[in-house]
C-alpha cells in the first residue's frame, strides 16, 4: 500500500460516518416533527368532536383518528377474545388475507411490544414505528464503525512508526555497507602488494587466510546492502549453498579439545529454489552459529541436511546434539531482542525468520528432536 493511502481511506470512512450521522439525525427530526403534527391534528379532531353536537361528529372523529394511526406507520392488528385477527393497519398486503400468516405476524408484534387488552374489543397488537426500529440499529452501527475507525487509526499510526524506524535502520545498514567499501578495497590492495613482494612460508599462509576473511567481510557488506530492498528471485542451488556454509564453519570450529564436527548431507540430484542467495546464506549461518555455540565447551556434531519436498521446493535442517532449547523459552526464541546468551543481542533468529518467511515466503521453525535442537527451513 502506497504511503498516504491508509490515511485517505480512514478519512473517507470518517466522512461517510459523519455524513450518515447527520442524515439520520435530520431524517429522525423530520419524522418526529411529522408525528408531532399528526398528534396535534388528533387532539384537534377530538376537541372538535366534543364541541360539535351534530349526529356524525363522533363517528367522523373516530375515522379521522383511525386515519392518523395509519399515517403514523405503526403496524396494528386487533384480535377477538378468541384470538381471531380482525381489523388491522399497516400490515403487509401479502398476509392481510391469510389468517395463518396473520397469526404469525401477531406473534411477532407481541415479541416487540405487550398487547393492549380491551374487554369489549379484544386484544390490540401493535409494533414499532420505522423510526424506533432504525433508532435501535443505526446508533449501534455508527458506534461500531467509530470504534473500528479508532482501532484502524491506532494500527496505522503504530505501523507507520514501525515502518519509519525500519527505513531508518535499513538506511543505516546500507550506509554502513557503503562505508565499508573503502577500507575493504584498501586492504585488498595491501594484500596484493605483500603478495607481489614474494611472501612465503607462514606469511603466505597468513595472507591466504587474510584474503579469505577479506572476501568474507565483502560478503557481509553486500548483505547489509540488501536490507530494505525488494526481495530477489534468482535460481539458487540449495545443496551448494548449504555446502558452502558447512565448509566455512568447518574451518573455524574447534578440532582438538571439545571438537565440533560439521556434517553436510545433500541429495544426489540438483535442487533449485528461487530467492536471494546472499540472504539465504546469512540465515543459514545464523542457525549454524547458534548450533556451534550450543556445543561450546562440550563438543558434538552439527548436521546440515538438504532434501527435496514432494510438493516442490527444499527442506533444510540444521541440528545439533547439544543441550537443546528448554520448554520455557521455545515460544520466545524468535522474538527480537530475546537471547539465552549473556552477551547475545537476540536478533539472529528473528533476522533468519524474517529472511526465510518475509523475503522468500517459506517457514522457519524449531522442530521436536530426540536430542539437541533442530531448526527446519522450508523454501517453496
Structure description:
There is one protein chain. The protein has 380 residues and is of the alpha+beta class. It has three domains: 75-127, no CATH class; 135-223; 231-379, 2-Layer Sandwich (Heat Shock Protein 90). Helix content is 55%, strand content 15%. It is built from eight helices and eleven strands. It has helices at residues 5-51, 57-72, 99-112, 130-196, 202-226, 238-250, 277-294, 348-357; strands spanning 76-79, 85-89, 116-118, 122-126, 234-237, 260-265, 272-275, 300-308, 314-320, 363-367, 374-379. The strands form three sheets. Strands 6-8-9-11-10 form a five-stranded mixed sheet. Strands 2-1-4-3 form a four-stranded antiparallel sheet, covered by helices on one side. A hairpin with a 5-residue loop joins strand 8 (300-308) and strand 9. The two termini are 25 Å apart.
Amino acid at each position: 500500500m502506497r504511503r498516504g493511502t491508509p490515511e485517505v481511506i480512514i478519512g473517507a470512512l470518517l466522512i461517510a460516518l459523519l455524513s450518515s450521522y447527520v442524515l439520520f439525525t435530520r431524517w429522525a427530526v423530520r419524522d418526529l416533527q411529522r408525528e408531532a403534527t399528526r398528534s396535534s391534528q388528533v387532539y384537534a379532531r377530538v376537541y372538535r368532536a366534543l364541541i360539535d353536537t351534530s349526529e356524525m361528529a363522533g363517528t367522523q372523529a373516530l375515522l379521522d383518528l383511525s386515519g392518523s394511526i395509519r399515517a403514523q406507520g405503526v403496524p396494528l392488528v386487533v384480535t377477538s377474545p378468541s384470538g381471531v385477527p380482525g381489523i388491522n393497519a399497516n400490515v403487509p398486503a401479502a398476509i392481510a388475507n391469510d389468517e395463518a400468516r396473520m397469526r404469525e405476524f401477531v406473534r411477532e408484534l407481541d415479541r416487540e411490544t405487550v398487547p393492549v387488552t380491551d374487554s369489549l374489543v379484544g386484544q390490540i397488537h401493535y409494533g414499532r414505528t420505522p423510526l424506533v426500529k432504525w433508532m435501535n440499529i443505526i446508533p449501534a452501527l455508527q458506534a461500531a464503525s467509530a470504534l473500528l475507525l479508532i482501532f484502524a487509526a491506532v494500527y496505522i499510526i503504530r505501523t507507520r512508526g514501525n515502518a519509519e524506524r525500519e527505513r531508518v535502520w535499513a538506511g543505516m545498514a546500507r550506509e554502513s555497507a557503503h562505508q565499508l567499501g573503502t577500507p575493504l578495497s584498501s586492504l585488498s590492495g595491501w594484500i596484493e602488494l605483500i603478495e607481489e613482494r614474494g611472501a612465503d612460508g607462514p606469511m603466505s599462509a597468513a595472507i591466504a587466510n587474510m584474503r579469505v576473511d577479506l572476501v568474507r567481510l565483502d560478503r557481509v557488506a553486500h548483505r547489509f546492502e540488501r536490507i530494505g530492498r525488494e526481495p530477489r528471485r534468482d535460481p539458487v542451488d540449495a545443496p551448494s549453498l548449504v555446502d558452502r556454509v558447512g565448509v566455512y564453519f568447518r574451518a573455524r570450529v574447534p578440532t582438538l579439545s571439545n571438537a565440533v564436527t560439521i556434517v553436510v548431507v545433500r541429495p544426489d540430484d540438483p535442487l533449485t529454489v528461487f530467492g536471494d542467495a546472499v540472504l539465504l546464506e546469512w540465515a543459514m549461518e545464523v542457525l549454524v552459529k547458534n548450533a556451534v555455540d550450543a556445543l561450546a565447551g562440550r563438543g558434538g556434531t552439527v548436521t546440515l541436511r538438504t532434501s527435496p519436498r514432494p510438493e516442490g521446493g527444499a527442506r533444510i535442517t540444521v541440528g545439533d546434539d547439544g543441550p537443546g532449547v528448554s520448554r520455557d523459552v521455545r515460544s520466545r526464541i524468535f522474538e527480537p531482542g530475546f537471547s539465552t546468551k549473556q552477551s547475545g543481542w537476540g536478533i539472529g533468529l528473528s533476522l533468519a525468520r524474517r529472511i526465510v518467511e518475509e523475503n522468500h515466503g517459506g517457514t522457519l521453525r524449531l522442530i521436536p528432536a530426540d536430542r539437541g535442537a533442530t531448526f527446519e527451513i522450508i523454501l517453496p
